[in-house]
Specification:
Oligomer: single chain
Helix content: 55-70%
Strand content: under 5%
Order of helices and strands: HHH
Structural class: mainly alpha
Distance between the termini: 47 Å
Largest sheet: none
């Protein structure tokens, strides 16, 4: 169970989060939490592109039953 805390944020950031949340099928709080995780991971891994960090975190959040195993194209049968 996660606790909730109210915070004040800039209206422009809220509006951006609301727009992105709708596109990504997240709540506004979930979108801001995602941005925070991406930012933290990007700071912890400065040599990785932020887009790679974001995509990696998003893929880790996907349900496992929807995942497909990786099959290399160079693998010969």
């Amino acid at each position: 169970m996660s606790a909730s805390t109210s915070i004040r944020i800039n209206q422009e950031l809220y509006d951006q989060a609301k727009q992105d949340a709708a596109l990504e099928h997240r709540s506004i709080a979930g979108q801001i939490e995602f941005w925070a995780r991406v930012g933290r991971a990007a700071l912890d891994n400065p040599d990785l592109p932020v887009s790679f960090v974001a995509e990696s975190l998003a893929s880790m959040a996907e349900p496992r039953e929807q995942s497909k195993p990786f099959v290399s194209r160079s693998r010969h049968s």
